[in-house]
Specification:
heterodimer; A: 499 residues; 15 helices; B: mainly alpha; binds iron/sulfur cluster
Chain lengths: 499, 361
């Protein structure tokens, strides 16, 4: 298939070889699971269980709340030992609401978890609703509730489903392994999603650095003419949703819009496998494949892990550290988040745990910008990272917004090539956070102002009503007086006339 | 220089640094420099050394005055490169103080007055060169025919010292105009280009570097090779050199076609003077050139056009320094108006609207 050119991009050392040939292994059940109530974008789930309660594998622990939310299920059978606060799988390490479950070792399924022998007879709405019930979210790291995306058919004219198997982040191999080991499950999940979306064209995009995965998926897809496996040149950030779509269909998604506006919905490989499991076997999203790798990890591996497993257990299973890691990261090295500690649990969006050595991070002291334009050349969004960063440093966030700050996808290509080692993405994230905070403050201020204005308008209205009433009374009085006077005159005249 | 704890990615980095960039440029300059030093012998070697050392000294002084840390900025190689580029454009047998004054002008006035590395509006080496040319027109225009090292008649180590440091008048004996200024003089005397060309260095001499000219400007071929290396290593992009040389060649070509007697050929323009050095190493100076592709093309074309205009119509025989400085002044403007198009937006910055184009999509 002919591909379209996308702008910029970099070729980081992919270092996938360390874990790419390790088959997925099941991690032994940990002694405690910490299941956060918010593992997705949107409102946190609302707990339905109480402390001390016994639950079975797959049982609903917390229900979704609101339009954009996702439920949470028990990854195994056991006892709820706590519903409280636990460090989040996030750079901040903030305490978030978390259900703690002590596995009983039996791993018994809940009776309600029943699949459909032939899920392809289900109607589109039914597929989407089961995906919602299974708590499936975008597993490439975005964690947007998948069912919401499957329901986009109601609002947009959709033509194409794109499956993102680019896995363009260095190090990560979990999607690669899934495609190699479970191509039929992935394929069925993809076909089910296409059915839910009502599209007849599916483009399954896999970077050319994964020939075995391409081969396996082509093999699995060969009887399905609507499903086409497309090889992509290995380049970061090929897996950025909007750029992937552009490379495949040649159209840019309008700024600040959705790919659905140009008729395309993008889903991830692991999400597809999860959809298959949910519909065919009735299994909600309670586990996932995580790549554990990095220069400091003794034996890099791909692990199939129950949600809620502390990262400590993953590292221990991989033989611990060779040396003190310089950086612990959740996700890939380009867009991943630093981890505050290894106590935090695996969540639905965790695709990788990286323990990087200092040599890999190549951190260096920051120098002044030499205007080399490398950042401009590699930015896939056509931005001027050097100018945005200079403006942010100078404190004028508005100027950086005018330069397109809000169109930045935070891919990190610019910071990756900067010879002066300027932490450009850090500046952008700071500015985006600050702007969001200001907007919230302004909203609040606006609200207050609106209330005050409404009140003064009300007072004004009351005053006006009073004034009007007064004026009316005065007018009436005057009219009466005039009438009386006139009557008098009339009377006099009449009298005169009589006289 | 600040040490920041990284809270945001990426947690990987390409093997680049400011120092590496500067080192690669220096490596690309080496062959042409070596030929220049060999052609003009000991005095050139002394002048070159004095200029580079003075530049580093000036940098240290400026850093000390500005209370900036010495080590990272001295080690980044930018001062060496500035001194180096300046030396390349000097008359090879110029007295030592030309190098010292030039280096001080370049580093202090051209760079640190603006705020140090990355902040300067003008190319420091060209600031110094043009200032020297205006202040010391005599010393800055005394060129000579090559006196290759060890060749008969070439000054030895000690004689060289006398020429560079002792004010020896030996240069008068060997001085020879550069081809560009020779042609300019001859044209003003009413002699045609064709004839004038016969008494000066041949195109071939200009190409390989055995002609009269600036210390490191003469070997067009090696400068071209160094420039191509930098493009290959992606230290510079091809846009500025291509636009600059292309514009120069096209303008020269048109005029030459119309009146070959009064205007030199494009080939002559490309290989003479500082055209090659300017196109690959001076106009492409990262700090003072635009950042977008379209900006670079415009900048390069502007340099090329100005070089041609100055060489042809102004009173100076060579115009690379002036051309680059003039275009440097335009860089902020070019950067402001020629930005890359943002993904998902049209050139005006509005989000793409497909309904407008096709009506139904
Ligand atoms: S992080 Fe933003 S500015 Fe930097 S390259 Fe990516 S999109 Fe461009
Ligand atoms: S890559 Fe770094 S040094 Fe180069 S222009 Fe961008 S911010 Fe400046």
């Amino acid at each position: 298939m002919k591909l379209f050119k996308i702008r910029g991009g970099v070729h980081p050392d992919d270092r996938k070889a360390r874990s790419a040939d390790r088959p997925i292994e099941n991690l032994p059940m940990p002694s405690l699971l910490h299941i956060p109530l918010q593992q997705h974008i949107g409102a946190p789930a609302e707990p339905l269980v109480t402390r001390g309660q016994l639950v079975r594998k797959g049982q609903l622990l917390a229900r979704s709340q609101g339009m954009i939310s996702a439920p949470v299920h028990a990854p195994t059978s056991g006892r709820i030992v706590g519903i409280g606060r636990y460090p989040a799988h996030h750079a901040s390490g903030l305490l978030v609401r978390t259900i703690t479950l002590k596995p009983d070792g039996y791993d018994e399924w809940d009776d309600d978890c029943k699949g459909e022998a032939d899920p392809f007879i289900l109607a589109a709405e039914e597929i989407a609703s089961r995906v919602a019930q299974a708590g499936i979210v975008g597993m490439g790291g975005a964690t947007f509730p998948s069912a919401v995306k499957l329901n986009l058919r109601e609002r947009y004219d959709l033509e194409t489903l794109v499956i993102n198997g680019a896995e363009c982040e260095p190090y990560l191999t979990c999607d690669d392994r899934l495609m190699r080991e479970r191509p039929h499950d992935v394929r069925d999940g993809v076909l089910l999603m296409a059915r839910a979306l009502g599209v007849s064209r599916i483009l399954f995009a896999i970077e050319n650095n994964k020939p075995q995965a391409q081969q396996a998926m082509r093999e699995a897809a060969k009887d399905f003419s609507e499903l086409q496996v497309v090889g992509l040149p290995a380049r970061y950030p090929m897996g950025s949703e909007k750029h992937l779509v552009q490379a495949l269909i040649g159209k840019e998604t309008p700024a600040r819009g959705l790919t659905a506006e140009i008729g395309v919905v993008v889903h991830n490989v692991a999400t597809a496998a999860a959809v298959n499991d949910a519909l065919r076997h009735g299994r909600p999203l309670i586990s996932r494949v995580v790549t554990v790798t990095g220069g400091s990890v003794t034996q890099p591996r791909n692990l199939h892990v129950p949600i809620g497993t502390p990262l400590d257990d993953l590292i221990a299973y991989c033989g611990g550290f060779v040396d003190e890691p310089a950086k612990l990261i959740s996700g890939g090295p380009m867009m991943g988040q630093p981890l505050p500690s290894l106590r935090v649990p695996v969540i639905k969006g965790s695709n990788g745990v990286l323990a990087l050595s200092a040599l890999e991070v190549r951190h260096a002291p920051e120098m002044p910008c030499i205007r080399c334009a490398s950042c401009v050349d590699v930015c896939p969004c056509g931005l001027l990272p050097l100018s945005m960063s200079a403006n942010i440093r100078a404190g004028s966030l508005e100027a950086s917004v005018d330069l397109g700050l809000l169109d930045c996808i935070g891919c990190g290509s610019c910071a990756y090539v900067c010879p002066s080692h300027i932490p450009l993405v850090q500046h952008f994230n700071y500015a985006k956070g600050e702007l969001a905070a200001r907007q919230r403050a302004q909203h609040k201020q606006g609200e207050t102002k609106r209330l005050i204005e409404a009140r003064s308008a009300r007072m004004e209205a009351i005053k006006k009503a009073k004034r009007d009433a007064m004026a009316k009374r005065k007018r009436e009085m005057a009219a009466k007086k005039a009438a009386e006077a006139a009557a008098k005159v009339d009377g006099t005249q009449a009298a005169e006339a009589e006289a | 220089m600040t040490e920041t704890a990284l809270l945001s990615g990426p947690y990987a980095h390409e093997k680049t640094s400011v120092g590496r960039t500067m080192r690669l440029v220096i490596i690309a300059l080496l062959p042409a420099t070596a030929v220049g030093l060999f052609q003009f012998g000991w005095p050139a070697i002394y002048l070159f050394a004095v200029t580079v050392v003075s530049a580093v000294f000036a940098e240290a002084l400026a850093l000390w005055l500005m209370k900036k840390p010495q080590k990272p900025f001295l080690l980044d190689g930018s001062a060496v490169l500035t001194g180096w580029l300046l030396a390349m454009t000097l008359p090879p047998w110029a007295p030592w103080w030309i190098g010292v004054v030039g280096a001080l002008l370049a580093i202090i006035v051209g760079k640190h007055v603006f705020g140090g590395i990355g902040q300067n509006l003008f190319n420091p080496a060209m600031v110094a060169r043009v200032a020297l040319l205006i202040s010391f027109p005599l010393e800055m225009t005394q060129f000579l025919a090559p006196q290759p090292l060890l060749s008969a008649g070439a000054p030895g180590m000690l004689e060289g010292l006398a020429i560079t440091f002792g004010g020896s008048a030996q240069i008068d004996a060997v001085s020879s105009a550069t081809p560009l200024s020779h042609i300019k003089t001859e044209l003003s005397r009413g002699i045609g280009v064709d004839q004038a060309l016969q008494d000066t260095d041949s195109l071939w001499q200009l190409t390989v570097g055995t002609a009269s000219g600036g210390l490191g400007e003469t070997s067009a071929l090696l400068l071209l090779a160094g420039g191509l290396l930098l493009i290959y290593l992606r230290v510079i992009s091809w846009h500025i050199p291509a636009a600059m040389l292309g514009t120069l060649a096209v303008l020269a070509g048109v005029f030459h076609l119309v009146d070959p007697d009064s205007y030199s050929s494009p080939w002559f323009h490309l290989v003479s003077g500082a055209a090659m050095l300017g196109a690959f190493f001076i106009a492409t100076d990262l700090v003072t050139s635009p950042v977008s592709v379209r900006g670079k093309l415009l900048f390069g074309a502007g340099c090329g056009a100005l070089v041609f205009i100055i060489r042809t119509f102004a009173s100076y025989p060579e115009g690379v320094g002036f051309a680059v400085l003039l275009m440097n002044a335009c860089t902020p403007l070019i950067d402001h108006y020629l930005k890359p198009r943002i993904y998902g937006r049209d050139r005006k910055g509005e989000p793409l609207d497909y309904t407008k184009e096709s009506g139904d999509a």
